[in-house]
Amino acid sequence: MKLRSLALLILSLLAISPATAQERADSFPSRSIKIVVPFPAGGPSDVLARMIGQRMTEDWGQPVVVENRVGANTVLGAQQVAKAAPDGYTLLMAIDSTLVMNQFLYRTLPYDPFADFAPITTVTKTVSVVAVRSTDGPKSVAELIAHARAAPGKLNYGAGTITAQLMGHLFHKAAGLDIVYVPFKGTTETTTGLLTGSVDLIYAATVTVTPLIESGQLRALAKLDSRAPAVLGDLPTLATAAGLPNLDDISIWLGLVAPAGTPSQITDKLARKVAQIMNNPDAIEKSQRIGSYPLTMSPAEFSAFMHKEADRWAKVLKELDLRYD
User: Fold this and answer.
1) Cβ-based burial of 31 (10 A; exposed 0-12, middle 13-18, buried ≥19)
2) pTM for the complete prediction?
């Protein structure tokens, strides 16, 4: 009798759970939302998280707080969100390395990008450029290649993300250049390293370097994505400028995820809101002005995209034998 009663109880709970979940989604959010950004303030992910958070606050009437959780190549921020309650109130503004590359770079990664997160949506692709100092840097990609070949191992480059690092690796390998990699914690620090002379060139998102290019402190030699917005004018792609037609476009993308187990009704609602925000003409114009373009998806599409990206980069990272532990 007790077993029968328990079975009936379970069946009744299962029967009402979809309605309960929908009710929770209808009332979401009822309190503050936190977006964890695993990079310092001022970088591309931080700028976009704050823009999205401000619009969510205005539209939903609940505060959205951005928390910068820096360290360990985004691992600390990812861990924090992976362990959070799966209720939609703690989100991660993830970069491609967090959800794709890190699993191939660490033997003991303390989170599983596919098992520990519920995808919400991609947000943008951030266009990057190869940049040098205006005062003493080369004036073209051809000149950069000539300098590097004349002094193997003497030039160095900075990157604040694994994707930016790979931009340098892939280009230097394709062009037969020996340029030393110098790691930084984010795009802002990378740019400072170039300005202070710590490195000779950088691969960095235009959201950070465009003001310095416009002010004449830095010079952009080429863009890494053929879909770059008009703000970059007629700047050539790196593949074209270097005479390397087989060099693929490489973009740094950002996406929003929640802890695994977050109800799909809530992740769907968040995805629709982000799409509404990012596809607004003002957001499109602002994104293009800082050198990126909106890219939103459904949670299911984002999940498929992550797996496709993982397949792509697993081969490259194995070939380059890049490991962090």
Assistant:
1) exposed
2) 0.77
